[in-house]
Amino acid sequence: MRPRTTQELLDASTPADWRRPDPASTLYMELEGGRVVIELAPDFAPEHVANIRTLAKEGFWDGLTIYRSQDNFVVQFGDITGEGEAPKPIGGARAALPAEFSRPIEGLAFHALPDRDGWAPETGFAGGFPAARDPAEGQAWMAHCYGTLGAGRDMAADSSNGTELYVVIGQAPRQLDRNITQVGRVLHGMELLSVVPRGTGPLGFHEDPSQRVPIKAVRLASEVPETERTDLQVLRTDTPLFDAVVESRRNRRDDWYLRPAGHIDLCNIAVPVRVVD
Amino acid sequence: MRPRTTQELLDASTPADWRRPDPASTLYMELEGGRVVIELAPDFAPEHVANIRTLAKEGFWDGLTIYRSQDNFVVQFGDITGEGEAPKPIGGARAALPAEFSRPIEGLAFHALPDRDGWAPETGFAGGFPAARDPAEGQAWMAHCYGTLGAGRDMAADSSNGTELYVVIGQAPRQLDRNITQVGRVLHGMELLSVVPRGTGPLGFHEDPSQRVPIKAVRLASEVPETERTDLQVLRTDTPLFDAVVESRRNRRDDWYLRPAGHIDLCNIAVPVRVVD
Protein backbone atom coordinates (compact mmCIF):
# COMPACT_ATOMS: atom_id res chain seq x y z
CA MET A 1 0.00 0.00 0.00
CA ARG A 2 1.41 3.39 -0.86
CA PRO A 3 1.86 5.97 1.93
CA ARG A 4 -1.01 8.36 2.33
CA THR A 5 -0.85 11.90 0.97
CA THR A 6 -1.16 14.93 3.21
CA GLN A 7 -4.79 15.38 2.23
CA GLU A 8 -5.62 11.76 2.91
CA LEU A 9 -4.01 12.03 6.32
CA LEU A 10 -5.99 15.14 7.17
CA ASP A 11 -9.19 13.56 5.92
CA ALA A 12 -8.58 10.68 8.34
CA SER A 13 -7.82 12.95 11.31
CA THR A 14 -9.88 12.92 14.50
CA PRO A 15 -10.99 15.93 16.56
CA ALA A 16 -8.21 15.16 19.06
CA ASP A 17 -5.64 15.89 16.36
CA TRP A 18 -6.70 19.54 16.29
CA ARG A 19 -6.59 22.37 18.80
CA ARG A 20 -8.36 25.69 19.10
CA PRO A 21 -5.99 28.58 19.86
CA ASP A 22 -6.67 30.39 23.12
CA PRO A 23 -8.78 33.50 22.35
CA ALA A 24 -6.76 35.42 24.96
CA SER A 25 -3.65 34.73 22.86
CA THR A 26 -5.23 35.40 19.49
CA LEU A 27 -5.12 38.73 17.68
CA TYR A 28 -7.48 39.83 14.94
CA MET A 29 -6.00 42.44 12.67
CA GLU A 30 -8.80 44.02 10.65
CA LEU A 31 -7.81 45.41 7.26
CA GLU A 32 -9.89 46.69 4.37
CA GLY A 33 -9.33 43.35 2.66
CA GLY A 34 -10.31 41.21 5.62
CA ARG A 35 -9.04 39.72 8.84
CA VAL A 36 -5.58 38.46 9.69
CA VAL A 37 -5.57 35.98 12.59
CA ILE A 38 -2.40 35.80 14.68
CA GLU A 39 -1.53 33.45 17.52
CA LEU A 40 0.61 34.92 20.26
CA ALA A 41 3.34 32.92 21.98
CA PRO A 42 3.33 33.65 25.72
CA ASP A 43 5.57 30.62 26.32
CA PHE A 44 8.34 32.36 24.38
CA ALA A 45 7.77 36.05 25.08
CA PRO A 46 5.53 36.44 28.16
CA GLU A 47 6.35 40.09 28.80
CA HIS A 48 5.86 41.16 25.22
CA VAL A 49 2.64 39.19 24.90
CA ALA A 50 1.28 40.77 28.09
CA ASN A 51 2.06 44.21 26.69
CA ILE A 52 0.54 43.38 23.32
CA ARG A 53 -2.65 42.25 25.05
CA THR A 54 -2.84 45.59 26.83
CA LEU A 55 -2.16 47.50 23.63
CA ALA A 56 -4.85 45.56 21.78
CA LYS A 57 -7.42 46.00 24.55
CA GLU A 58 -6.82 49.74 24.51
CA GLY A 59 -7.05 49.95 20.72
CA PHE A 60 -3.47 51.11 20.25
CA TRP A 61 -3.17 49.99 16.61
CA ASP A 62 -6.65 51.15 15.56
CA GLY A 63 -6.19 53.76 12.86
CA LEU A 64 -2.45 53.14 12.54
CA THR A 65 -0.86 51.59 9.45
CA ILE A 66 1.32 48.99 7.85
CA TYR A 67 4.14 51.35 6.96
CA ARG A 68 6.83 49.00 5.67
CA SER A 69 6.86 46.23 3.08
CA GLN A 70 10.29 44.96 2.11
CA ASP A 71 10.34 42.36 -0.62
CA ASN A 72 11.35 38.86 0.47
CA PHE A 73 11.63 40.02 4.06
CA VAL A 74 8.93 41.63 6.23
CA VAL A 75 5.90 43.87 6.48
CA GLN A 76 5.84 46.03 9.58
CA PHE A 77 3.09 47.95 11.32
CA GLY A 78 2.52 50.23 14.26
CA ASP A 79 2.99 53.90 14.91
CA ILE A 80 5.25 55.62 12.44
CA THR A 81 5.51 59.19 13.54
CA GLY A 82 6.82 61.85 11.26
CA GLU A 83 9.37 64.44 12.24
CA GLY A 84 7.99 66.73 14.91
CA GLU A 85 4.90 64.58 15.50
CA ALA A 86 4.12 63.19 18.90
CA PRO A 87 4.01 59.41 19.14
CA LYS A 88 0.67 57.82 19.93
CA PRO A 89 0.32 57.32 23.70
CA ILE A 90 0.65 53.71 24.82
CA GLY A 91 -1.84 53.98 27.67
CA GLY A 92 -1.49 51.24 30.24
CA ALA A 93 1.22 49.39 28.33
CA ARG A 94 4.83 49.42 29.45
CA ALA A 95 7.27 51.56 27.50
CA ALA A 96 10.23 49.26 28.15
CA LEU A 97 10.50 45.50 28.32
CA PRO A 98 13.32 43.02 28.68
CA ALA A 99 14.58 41.31 25.52
CA GLU A 100 13.00 37.86 25.13
CA PHE A 101 15.18 36.34 22.42
CA SER A 102 15.17 32.85 23.92
CA ARG A 103 14.04 30.96 26.99
CA PRO A 104 15.19 27.99 29.04
CA ILE A 105 14.65 24.55 27.57
CA GLU A 106 13.21 23.35 30.87
CA GLY A 107 9.44 23.38 31.01
CA LEU A 108 8.93 23.67 27.25
CA ALA A 109 7.53 20.60 25.50
CA PHE A 110 9.52 20.29 22.29
CA HIS A 111 8.66 17.95 19.45
CA ALA A 112 11.92 17.52 17.54
CA LEU A 113 12.37 16.94 13.82
CA PRO A 114 14.95 14.41 12.62
CA ASP A 115 15.98 16.68 9.73
CA ARG A 116 19.31 18.45 9.70
CA ASP A 117 19.35 22.21 10.04
CA GLY A 118 22.18 24.61 9.41
CA TRP A 119 21.11 27.24 11.91
CA ALA A 120 20.53 25.35 15.14
CA PRO A 121 21.45 22.04 16.77
CA GLU A 122 17.78 21.01 16.99
CA THR A 123 14.59 22.16 15.34
CA GLY A 124 10.99 21.17 15.85
CA PHE A 125 7.72 22.51 17.21
CA ALA A 126 6.76 23.84 20.62
CA GLY A 127 3.17 24.77 21.36
CA GLY A 128 2.51 24.70 17.63
CA PHE A 129 5.29 27.17 16.82
CA PRO A 130 8.32 26.36 14.69
CA ALA A 131 11.19 26.44 17.12
CA ALA A 132 14.80 25.52 17.73
CA ARG A 133 16.94 24.77 20.72
CA ASP A 134 20.49 24.30 21.84
CA PRO A 135 20.87 21.70 24.58
CA ALA A 136 24.44 22.84 25.25
CA GLU A 137 23.23 26.33 26.10
CA GLY A 138 19.95 25.14 27.57
CA GLN A 139 18.00 27.65 25.47
CA ALA A 140 15.02 27.39 23.11
CA TRP A 141 13.60 29.98 20.76
CA MET A 142 11.04 30.47 18.03
CA ALA A 143 12.41 30.15 14.50
CA HIS A 144 11.84 32.92 11.98
CA CYS A 145 9.66 31.28 9.35
CA TYR A 146 7.12 32.63 6.89
CA GLY A 147 4.34 34.24 8.93
CA THR A 148 6.37 34.77 12.09
CA LEU A 149 5.38 37.85 14.10
CA GLY A 150 8.21 39.68 15.80
CA ALA A 151 8.73 42.85 17.80
CA GLY A 152 10.79 45.45 16.00
CA ARG A 153 13.67 46.90 17.95
CA ASP A 154 16.35 49.54 17.57
CA MET A 155 20.01 49.02 18.40
CA ALA A 156 19.51 48.11 22.04
CA ALA A 157 18.43 44.50 22.66
CA ASP A 158 15.73 45.68 25.05
CA SER A 159 14.36 48.45 22.85
CA SER A 160 11.21 46.64 21.70
CA ASN A 161 7.96 47.03 23.58
CA GLY A 162 5.57 45.34 21.17
CA THR A 163 4.11 48.47 19.60
CA GLU A 164 6.02 47.98 16.31
CA LEU A 165 5.48 44.49 14.91
CA TYR A 166 6.73 42.75 11.78
CA VAL A 167 5.60 39.67 9.89
CA VAL A 168 7.97 37.59 7.76
CA ILE A 169 6.80 37.51 4.11
CA GLY A 170 9.80 35.88 2.42
CA GLN A 171 12.55 33.33 2.69
CA ALA A 172 12.95 32.41 6.36
CA PRO A 173 15.38 35.00 7.82
CA ARG A 174 16.76 32.62 10.40
CA GLN A 175 19.72 34.92 10.95
CA LEU A 176 17.29 36.95 13.07
CA ASP A 177 16.81 34.04 15.48
CA ARG A 178 18.09 34.96 18.94
CA ASN A 179 18.62 38.53 17.79
CA ILE A 180 15.10 39.83 18.29
CA THR A 181 11.97 38.97 20.23
CA GLN A 182 9.41 36.88 18.43
CA VAL A 183 5.88 37.05 19.72
CA GLY A 184 3.67 34.86 17.54
CA ARG A 185 2.67 33.62 14.14
CA VAL A 186 0.01 34.36 11.52
CA LEU A 187 -2.49 31.51 11.36
CA HIS A 188 -4.87 32.84 8.75
CA GLY A 189 -5.07 35.71 6.26
CA MET A 190 -1.35 35.78 5.48
CA GLU A 191 -2.22 36.62 1.87
CA LEU A 192 -3.50 40.01 3.02
CA LEU A 193 -0.05 40.93 4.30
CA SER A 194 2.18 39.27 1.72
CA VAL A 195 0.79 41.32 -1.18
CA VAL A 196 1.18 44.75 0.38
CA PRO A 197 2.95 46.75 -2.33
CA ARG A 198 6.62 47.04 -1.49
CA GLY A 199 7.82 50.35 -0.14
CA THR A 200 10.24 52.28 -2.28
CA GLY A 201 12.14 53.83 0.60
CA PRO A 202 15.16 52.27 2.27
CA LEU A 203 14.31 48.90 3.90
CA GLY A 204 10.91 48.97 2.20
CA PHE A 205 9.45 51.83 4.22
CA HIS A 206 6.50 53.59 2.63
CA GLU A 207 7.80 57.10 2.58
CA ASP A 208 4.64 58.44 1.02
CA PRO A 209 2.00 58.08 3.74
CA SER A 210 -0.67 57.46 1.09
CA GLN A 211 1.00 54.12 0.31
CA ARG A 212 0.57 52.85 3.85
CA VAL A 213 -2.13 50.29 4.54
CA PRO A 214 -4.68 51.46 7.12
CA ILE A 215 -5.38 49.18 10.07
CA LYS A 216 -9.01 49.36 11.07
CA ALA A 217 -8.42 47.61 14.36
CA VAL A 218 -6.33 45.02 16.17
CA ARG A 219 -8.25 43.21 18.88
CA LEU A 220 -7.83 40.20 21.10
CA ALA A 221 -10.23 37.46 20.05
CA SER A 222 -11.30 37.17 23.67
CA GLU A 223 -12.56 40.77 23.49
CA VAL A 224 -14.65 40.08 20.41
CA PRO A 225 -18.18 38.65 20.71
CA GLU A 226 -18.11 34.91 20.04
CA THR A 227 -20.38 35.27 17.04
CA GLU A 228 -17.82 37.57 15.40
CA ARG A 229 -14.84 35.31 15.98
CA THR A 230 -13.10 33.26 13.32
CA ASP A 231 -13.36 29.68 14.50
CA LEU A 232 -9.98 28.18 13.62
CA GLN A 233 -8.57 24.77 14.32
CA VAL A 234 -4.84 24.18 14.09
CA LEU A 235 -3.31 20.76 13.67
CA ARG A 236 -1.51 19.72 16.84
CA THR A 237 2.22 19.36 16.30
CA ASP A 238 2.87 16.77 19.00
CA THR A 239 0.94 13.82 17.61
CA PRO A 240 1.67 10.77 15.46
CA LEU A 241 -0.63 12.26 12.83
CA PHE A 242 1.52 15.38 12.63
CA ASP A 243 4.62 13.25 12.21
CA ALA A 244 2.88 11.46 9.36
CA VAL A 245 1.87 14.79 7.78
CA VAL A 246 5.47 16.02 7.95
CA GLU A 247 6.67 12.76 6.41
CA SER A 248 4.14 13.20 3.60
CA ARG A 249 5.78 16.57 2.87
CA ARG A 250 9.33 15.31 3.34
CA ASN A 251 8.78 12.52 0.83
CA ARG A 252 5.97 13.41 -1.53
CA ARG A 253 4.24 10.27 -2.70
CA ASP A 254 1.68 11.65 -5.10
CA ASP A 255 1.88 10.87 -8.80
CA TRP A 256 3.55 14.15 -9.70
CA TYR A 257 6.77 13.85 -7.69
CA LEU A 258 9.37 11.59 -9.26
CA ARG A 259 12.08 12.07 -6.64
CA PRO A 260 11.06 12.43 -2.99
CA ALA A 261 13.42 14.86 -1.25
CA GLY A 262 14.16 12.72 1.80
CA HIS A 263 14.38 15.93 3.80
CA ILE A 264 12.40 18.95 4.84
CA ASP A 265 13.46 22.24 6.34
CA LEU A 266 11.62 23.40 9.43
CA CYS A 267 10.25 26.44 7.62
CA ASN A 268 8.90 24.36 4.73
CA ILE A 269 6.40 22.77 7.09
CA ALA A 270 3.09 24.62 6.98
CA VAL A 271 1.04 23.58 9.99
CA PRO A 272 -2.48 22.89 8.69
CA VAL A 273 -5.16 25.35 9.79
CA ARG A 274 -8.86 25.02 9.03
CA VAL A 275 -11.79 27.34 9.44
CA VAL A 276 -14.80 25.77 11.10
CA ASP A 277 -17.99 27.06 9.51
CA MET B 1 39.71 46.00 12.52
CA ARG B 2 36.16 44.76 12.28
CA PRO B 3 35.10 42.83 9.16
CA ARG B 4 33.48 44.92 6.49
CA THR B 5 29.71 45.00 6.06
CA THR B 6 28.05 43.94 2.82
CA GLN B 7 27.63 47.54 1.75
CA GLU B 8 31.24 48.39 2.47
CA LEU B 9 32.36 45.39 0.43
CA LEU B 10 30.19 46.42 -2.51
CA ASP B 11 31.39 50.00 -2.26
CA ALA B 12 34.96 48.69 -2.58
CA SER B 13 34.19 46.43 -5.56
CA THR B 14 35.89 46.86 -8.92
CA PRO B 15 34.27 46.57 -12.36
CA ALA B 16 35.76 43.07 -12.72
CA ASP B 17 33.61 41.90 -9.80
CA TRP B 18 30.46 42.47 -11.85
CA ARG B 19 29.07 40.95 -15.01
CA ARG B 20 26.45 42.01 -17.53
CA PRO B 21 23.97 39.24 -18.35
CA ASP B 22 23.91 38.17 -21.99
CA PRO B 23 21.05 40.04 -23.73
CA ALA B 24 20.28 36.87 -25.70
CA SER B 25 19.61 35.12 -22.39
CA THR B 26 17.68 37.96 -20.78
CA LEU B 27 13.90 38.29 -20.82
CA TYR B 28 11.96 41.49 -20.26
CA MET B 29 8.46 40.91 -19.00
CA GLU B 30 6.49 44.10 -19.40
CA LEU B 31 3.61 44.59 -16.95
CA GLU B 32 1.43 47.58 -16.23
CA GLY B 33 3.55 48.22 -13.15
CA GLY B 34 6.87 48.03 -14.92
CA ARG B 35 9.50 45.62 -16.19
CA VAL B 36 10.61 42.31 -14.73
CA VAL B 37 14.10 41.27 -15.84
CA ILE B 38 14.83 37.56 -15.97
CA GLU B 39 18.10 35.79 -16.73
CA LEU B 40 17.78 32.49 -18.55
CA ALA B 41 20.01 29.52 -17.77
CA PRO B 42 21.05 27.78 -20.99
CA ASP B 43 23.74 25.86 -19.09
CA PHE B 44 21.03 24.08 -17.14
CA ALA B 45 18.13 23.85 -19.59
CA PRO B 46 19.40 24.42 -23.15
CA GLU B 47 16.37 22.99 -24.91
CA HIS B 48 13.87 24.92 -22.83
CA VAL B 49 15.85 28.13 -23.15
CA ALA B 50 16.03 27.73 -26.92
CA ASN B 51 12.27 27.28 -27.03
CA ILE B 52 11.67 30.24 -24.74
CA ARG B 53 13.82 32.41 -27.01
CA THR B 54 11.66 31.40 -29.96
CA LEU B 55 8.45 32.01 -28.03
CA ALA B 56 9.64 35.46 -26.93
CA LYS B 57 10.79 36.43 -30.43
CA GLU B 58 7.39 35.50 -31.80
CA GLY B 59 5.51 37.37 -29.06
CA PHE B 60 3.89 34.29 -27.63
CA TRP B 61 3.21 35.79 -24.16
CA ASP B 62 2.11 39.20 -25.43
CA GLY B 63 -1.47 39.70 -24.30
CA LEU B 64 -1.48 36.61 -22.11
CA THR B 65 -1.67 36.75 -18.31
CA ILE B 66 -0.33 35.82 -14.92
CA TYR B 67 -3.14 33.46 -14.03
CA ARG B 68 -1.96 31.92 -10.78
CA SER B 69 -0.66 33.37 -7.51
CA GLN B 70 -0.35 30.90 -4.67
CA ASP B 71 0.72 32.37 -1.36
CA ASN B 72 4.20 31.39 -0.17
CA PHE B 73 4.76 29.39 -3.36
CA VAL B 74 4.60 30.64 -6.97
CA VAL B 75 3.06 32.95 -9.51
CA GLN B 76 2.54 31.37 -12.91
CA PHE B 77 1.94 32.82 -16.35
CA GLY B 78 1.30 31.76 -19.91
CA ASP B 79 -1.71 30.62 -21.86
CA ILE B 80 -4.60 29.52 -19.69
CA THR B 81 -7.29 28.38 -22.03
CA GLY B 82 -10.83 27.95 -20.86
CA GLU B 83 -12.96 24.96 -21.61
CA GLY B 84 -13.66 24.72 -25.33
CA GLU B 85 -11.14 27.43 -26.21
CA ALA B 86 -8.28 26.75 -28.59
CA PRO B 87 -4.81 27.19 -27.12
CA LYS B 88 -2.67 29.98 -28.52
CA PRO B 89 -0.51 28.67 -31.38
CA ILE B 90 3.15 28.29 -30.47
CA GLY B 91 4.48 29.18 -33.91
CA GLY B 92 8.02 28.04 -34.51
CA ALA B 93 8.49 26.70 -31.00
CA ARG B 94 8.56 23.00 -30.27
CA ALA B 95 5.51 21.47 -28.63
CA ALA B 96 7.50 18.81 -26.79
CA LEU B 97 10.89 18.91 -25.10
CA PRO B 98 12.93 16.54 -23.00
CA ALA B 99 12.90 17.00 -19.24
CA GLU B 100 15.94 18.98 -18.10
CA PHE B 101 15.83 18.43 -14.34
CA SER B 102 19.59 18.17 -13.95
CA ARG B 103 22.77 18.01 -15.99
CA PRO B 104 26.21 16.39 -15.73
CA ILE B 105 28.65 17.93 -13.29
CA GLU B 106 31.37 17.86 -15.95
CA GLY B 107 31.82 21.14 -17.75
CA LEU B 108 29.93 23.24 -15.20
CA ALA B 109 32.03 25.62 -13.10
CA PHE B 110 30.65 25.32 -9.59
CA HIS B 111 31.54 27.62 -6.72
CA ALA B 112 30.70 25.63 -3.59
CA LEU B 113 29.50 26.95 -0.24
CA PRO B 114 30.91 25.49 2.97
CA ASP B 115 27.50 25.61 4.65
CA ARG B 116 25.52 22.48 5.36
CA ASP B 117 22.33 21.87 3.44
CA GLY B 118 19.62 19.37 4.12
CA TRP B 119 18.52 18.90 0.52
CA ALA B 120 21.71 18.18 -1.38
CA PRO B 121 25.28 17.00 -0.75
CA GLU B 122 26.70 20.27 -2.10
CA THR B 123 25.31 23.73 -2.77
CA GLY B 124 26.82 26.79 -4.33
CA PHE B 125 26.60 28.93 -7.44
CA ALA B 126 27.07 28.11 -11.10
CA GLY B 127 26.98 30.86 -13.71
CA GLY B 128 25.44 33.12 -11.08
CA PHE B 129 22.57 30.76 -10.32
CA PRO B 130 21.99 29.11 -6.94
CA ALA B 131 22.69 25.45 -7.59
CA ALA B 132 23.37 22.09 -6.03
CA ARG B 133 25.13 18.93 -7.04
CA ASP B 134 25.63 15.33 -6.11
CA PRO B 135 29.12 14.07 -6.92
CA ALA B 136 28.03 10.47 -6.35
CA GLU B 137 25.44 10.77 -9.10
CA GLY B 138 27.53 13.15 -11.18
CA GLN B 139 24.59 15.55 -11.55
CA ALA B 140 24.10 19.27 -10.94
CA TRP B 141 20.90 21.30 -10.91
CA MET B 142 19.54 24.73 -10.15
CA ALA B 143 18.09 25.13 -6.67
CA HIS B 144 14.57 26.45 -6.22
CA CYS B 145 15.10 29.74 -4.41
CA TYR B 146 13.09 32.95 -4.24
CA GLY B 147 12.89 34.32 -7.80
CA THR B 148 13.60 31.05 -9.57
CA LEU B 149 11.88 30.68 -12.96
CA GLY B 150 10.70 27.20 -13.84
CA ALA B 151 8.73 25.50 -16.57
CA GLY B 152 5.37 24.16 -15.40
CA ARG B 153 4.66 20.58 -16.28
CA ASP B 154 1.82 18.07 -15.97
CA MET B 155 2.24 14.50 -14.76
CA ALA B 156 4.75 13.42 -17.38
CA ALA B 157 8.34 14.51 -16.73
CA ASP B 158 8.67 15.69 -20.31
CA SER B 159 5.38 17.59 -20.47
CA SER B 160 6.84 21.11 -20.17
CA ASN B 161 7.69 23.11 -23.26
CA GLY B 162 8.38 26.52 -21.69
CA THR B 163 5.08 28.15 -22.54
CA GLU B 164 3.83 27.99 -18.93
CA LEU B 165 6.35 29.48 -16.52
CA TYR B 166 6.34 29.98 -12.76
CA VAL B 167 8.36 32.16 -10.42
CA VAL B 168 8.97 31.27 -6.77
CA ILE B 169 7.53 33.93 -4.44
CA GLY B 170 7.89 32.21 -1.05
CA GLN B 171 9.97 29.94 1.11
CA ALA B 172 12.37 28.04 -1.14
CA PRO B 173 10.46 24.95 -2.34
CA ARG B 174 13.57 22.83 -2.64
CA GLN B 175 11.43 19.69 -2.80
CA LEU B 176 10.86 20.68 -6.44
CA ASP B 177 14.58 20.35 -7.20
CA ARG B 178 15.17 17.57 -9.72
CA ASN B 179 11.42 17.20 -10.21
CA ILE B 180 10.89 19.95 -12.76
CA THR B 181 12.88 21.96 -15.26
CA GLN B 182 14.23 25.29 -14.07
CA VAL B 183 15.05 27.81 -16.72
CA GLY B 184 16.26 31.00 -15.05
CA ARG B 185 15.95 33.55 -12.30
CA VAL B 186 14.43 37.00 -11.79
CA LEU B 187 17.16 39.62 -11.52
CA HIS B 188 15.08 42.75 -11.16
CA GLY B 189 11.45 43.71 -10.61
CA MET B 190 10.61 40.77 -8.38
CA GLU B 191 8.36 43.04 -6.34
CA LEU B 192 6.01 43.29 -9.32
CA LEU B 193 5.38 39.54 -9.18
CA SER B 194 5.44 38.91 -5.44
CA VAL B 195 2.49 41.21 -4.75
CA VAL B 196 0.09 39.77 -7.32
CA PRO B 197 -3.11 39.19 -5.32
CA ARG B 198 -3.40 35.54 -4.45
CA GLY B 199 -5.86 33.50 -6.45
CA THR B 200 -8.80 32.09 -4.57
CA GLY B 201 -9.10 28.92 -6.65
CA PRO B 202 -7.32 25.67 -5.87
CA LEU B 203 -3.51 26.10 -6.01
CA GLY B 204 -3.95 29.86 -6.23
CA PHE B 205 -5.40 29.92 -9.75
CA HIS B 206 -7.34 33.06 -10.63
CA GLU B 207 -10.64 31.51 -11.59
CA ASP B 208 -12.16 34.87 -12.38
CA PRO B 209 -10.31 36.03 -15.51
CA SER B 210 -10.67 39.65 -14.38
CA GLN B 211 -8.24 38.89 -11.52
CA ARG B 212 -5.47 37.85 -13.88
CA VAL B 213 -2.58 40.23 -14.48
CA PRO B 214 -2.18 41.20 -18.15
CA ILE B 215 1.24 40.76 -19.73
CA LYS B 216 1.94 43.51 -22.21
CA ALA B 217 4.92 41.70 -23.70
CA VAL B 218 7.78 39.33 -23.01
CA ARG B 219 10.82 40.03 -25.17
CA LEU B 220 14.43 39.00 -25.34
CA ALA B 221 16.66 41.91 -24.38
CA SER B 222 18.67 41.27 -27.53
CA GLU B 223 15.54 42.05 -29.57
CA VAL B 224 15.01 45.38 -27.80
CA PRO B 225 16.81 48.52 -28.98
CA GLU B 226 19.81 49.18 -26.75
CA THR B 227 18.41 52.49 -25.60
CA GLU B 228 15.34 50.71 -24.22
CA ARG B 229 17.26 48.06 -22.33
CA THR B 230 17.70 47.95 -18.57
CA ASP B 231 21.43 48.04 -17.99
CA LEU B 232 21.98 45.61 -15.14
CA GLN B 233 25.14 44.42 -13.51
CA VAL B 234 25.15 41.30 -11.39
CA LEU B 235 27.82 40.50 -8.86
CA ARG B 236 29.95 37.60 -10.04
CA THR B 237 29.61 34.58 -7.79
CA ASP B 238 33.05 33.08 -8.43
CA THR B 239 35.26 35.75 -6.89
CA PRO B 240 36.90 36.42 -3.52
CA LEU B 241 34.67 39.46 -3.20
CA PHE B 242 31.58 37.28 -3.48
CA ASP B 243 32.93 34.97 -0.80
CA ALA B 244 33.44 37.99 1.43
CA VAL B 245 29.90 39.21 0.71
CA VAL B 246 28.47 35.81 1.63
CA GLU B 247 30.53 35.80 4.81
CA SER B 248 29.17 39.25 5.65
CA ARG B 249 25.68 37.74 5.46
CA ARG B 250 26.60 34.52 7.24
CA ASN B 251 28.01 36.46 10.18
CA ARG B 252 26.49 39.91 10.35
CA ARG B 253 28.94 42.32 11.85
CA ASP B 254 26.94 45.51 11.95
CA ASP B 255 25.95 47.06 15.25
CA TRP B 256 22.43 45.62 15.23
CA TYR B 257 23.25 41.91 15.27
CA LEU B 258 24.25 40.56 18.65
CA ARG B 259 24.70 36.94 17.63
CA PRO B 260 26.12 36.15 14.18
CA ALA B 261 24.48 33.01 12.81
CA GLY B 262 27.66 31.23 11.75
CA HIS B 263 25.68 29.77 8.86
CA ILE B 264 23.69 30.73 5.81
CA ASP B 265 21.31 28.74 3.67
CA LEU B 266 21.89 28.88 -0.08
CA CYS B 267 18.53 30.56 -0.64
CA ASN B 268 19.24 33.28 1.92
CA ILE B 269 21.99 34.61 -0.32
CA ALA B 270 20.67 37.39 -2.54
CA VAL B 271 23.18 37.97 -5.33
CA PRO B 272 23.61 41.75 -5.57
CA VAL B 273 22.23 43.37 -8.74
CA ARG B 274 22.59 47.02 -9.65
CA VAL B 275 21.06 49.19 -12.32
CA VAL B 276 23.54 51.28 -14.26
CA ASP B 277 22.05 54.67 -15.04
From TrEMBL, chains A, B:
PROSITE patterns, alphabetized: CSA_PPIASE_2
Keywords recorded for this protein, A-Z: Isomerase, Rotamase
EC number: 5.2.1.8
Organism the protein comes from: Luteimonas granuli
Class in the EC hierarchy, top level: isomerase
Domain of life: Bacteria
GO molecular function: peptidyl-prolyl cis-trans isomerase activity
Chain ranges of the PPIase cyclophilin-type domain: 34-220
Protein name as it appears in the record: peptidylprolyl isomerase
